[in-house]
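Q: Could you write out the predicted structure for this multi-component system? I'm mainly interested in how the pieces pack against one another.
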Amino acid sequence: MKAKKAICTTVSLIVLATAAVGCAGTKEPNASKNVNQGTDNNNAAVDNDGAANTGDKVKVKFAGWGDPSEKQVFDQLIKDFETKNPTIDVEYMHMPADYVGKMNTMLAGGTAPDVLYVPDGDFGRWVSAGLLMPIDNYVESSNIDIGDMWESGLKRYKYDGKKTGEGELYALPKDIGPIVLYYNKELFDAAGVPYPSAENPMTFDELLETAKLLTKDENGDGKPEQYGMGPAWWEGWIWGNGGKILSDDRKEFMMHEKAATDALQFAADLRNKHGVSPDTRALQAMNDGQMFETGKLAMMQQGRWMVPTYRKLDFDWDVAPNPTNGQWDGHSGSVGLGIYSKTANADAAFKLVEYLGGPEGQKLQSEMGFAIPSFKSMANSDVFLQPGQKPEHAEVFVKAAEVQKPGPWTNLPNAKWWDTLNQNLAQVWDGRKTAEALMNELKPEIDKLIKEGNPKLFE
Amino acid sequence: MIMTEVSENRPVQPSRKAKRKFNKEYLWGYSFVAAPILGFMLFAFIPIGYSVYVSFTKYDAFNPPTFNGADNYARLLLEDPLFWKSLVNTLYAAIGIPIGMAAALAIAIALNQRIVGIKFFRTVFFLPTICSVVALTLLWKWVFNADYGLLNYLLGLINVSGPAWLNDVRWAMPSMIIQGVWAGLGFHMILYLAALQGVPTTLYEAAEIDGAGSWKKFLYVTIPGISPTTLFILITAVIAALQDFVRFMIMTEGGPEYSTMTIVYYLFQNAFRYMDMGYASAMAWILGILIMIITLINFWLSRRWVHYE
């Protein structure tokens, strides 16, 4: 009996203790949440965090994603950074999957790292919620020559309190990945078709003619074994054709205008009317990248990041500007390096951003071949152009980086308008509706979603 | 279901003698249940309560919520066609429930026979249940592939040109229903198998003496005999269907043209893609109330057709 009672007591005590700890554990975040609401106490919280640093070393947490080769490069960069800055200790958190989902949670919980990757598509949402620190002052007093950086790369990390693209700078580009036209030289040779120009974008007529010559349906079953052109990265086609996706003030959806619908319709006609581009069904079996890699697709649009993969292909290929029916255009992807607005170690955090986004970090990253360096002078040097390696016309990337805009999804913090557009575009791609009809039909709905999702813009 | 019946039928009535011991013994009792109760309060009840508050605010998860009255509910019910579309889609997807239940029962009956290798067949049919949802949905994405998919290959053998399934507005939801029926089969089959074996043989004997054939035995003995299990499957399947989400996210992302956007997927998008927590919480509450109403109706109707021994 006694033993039984003793066991009972012990177990109950453990249960109660656990419960008490549980209580204490949950109280803390609540408390700090309240603290953060008051500006006075905010400093207290910061001091608290600062006190956690042991000795002279300042700890900077840094988060990013990327495949193993990117992690390797960053491990190396961080090691080098720590050697040069012995007082700073960097904790690198590598999150290979669902980075944005995890970061949203950390940002909401107030436990975000000091330095973080900021995808340009999420920048608007994070900056408008006050989660990023403006870095203008830091950049001015640093050794970074902002004039040597791509304007298109910097611009997307600016925010004026209402919209992105103007105002203060909140992140440095880690990279910028322009989109270009890749083509299989051997298929061009076999069909006796001249290569696309590396200087002038193809017009829509030229693209159609070229694609027709490169489409082969030898067994005549109506399903070509070789297609001329891959699916359109249509944003640049609209811009190049003189159209707009959003109005300049971002308050209005503009794809119902003729220049835009013409470009969309042309892209859809390539599949449905001319049969020179794979349709949804064919792409479901094998996507454009796989078709290109296996010699079943002569031309397609892709980002810079495919270069390391394509260098291993056993056929010869090259790059040309996006077919835009006009000036060079298109969109480039980018990831920024931002600083969490509630960081306790802003100085040390910026040092890391400066290093990774600056010349040293950029040099190592561009040697990987995934992205183009943020500095124009470096992009024009052998570090990036890597003569002797494919592609022959690597300068196409340089020009593309200079002129290409951020993707339209970076233009507004709330992306519902964009999702709705994309959900509906299939009707044009599958030829069930004309671009003109669909865009006019969608305009009121998308205008409403823009207004609803981005109230700050309309204040 | 059976479990709750048992516990409801045996309420603990403290006798007078026991009441004297109330303080001491009950204290022990309470301290033992403290862990789960506190865990529930902290990780379920308080967050659930908080979400009621959040549903009446504008809240992006980063900045403090600001009260905006019933705005979220008004917007949801009056101004958001996509919410209604996702609701209709979710109910459409629930067509799979009766189909799946009938199929599960048929298989359970087949697997209730004494034949060679029965354990092997039972294992085969139960296997999908223990596989990861993600793996299964990826597998089915291939089954539904327009040109190389197994389904269209089989249809091709009988000279039918199959649709593009998941990429076709008309076929995307039927595809998801087929996948859902298949995925739920194993678990429902096992429940039915257990229920079938629980129907007393005496009842069958009595029916036989009365001259009932196998069809009548099935209709008047088996069906009523397994009706508590049917109710359990029905209620859990309805709740699961109304909350269905992961396989839609992986297989269709709600497309094409939002034809497979379910309520919970739309809720997830609002919460974690558009960071509109208040709106998402309002959706969650409407869904919660809807589930509650449907479940109550199910229980109420069940009085007419569920027979407990």
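A: Regarding packing and overall arrangement: Strands of chain B lie at 57-58, 66-67.
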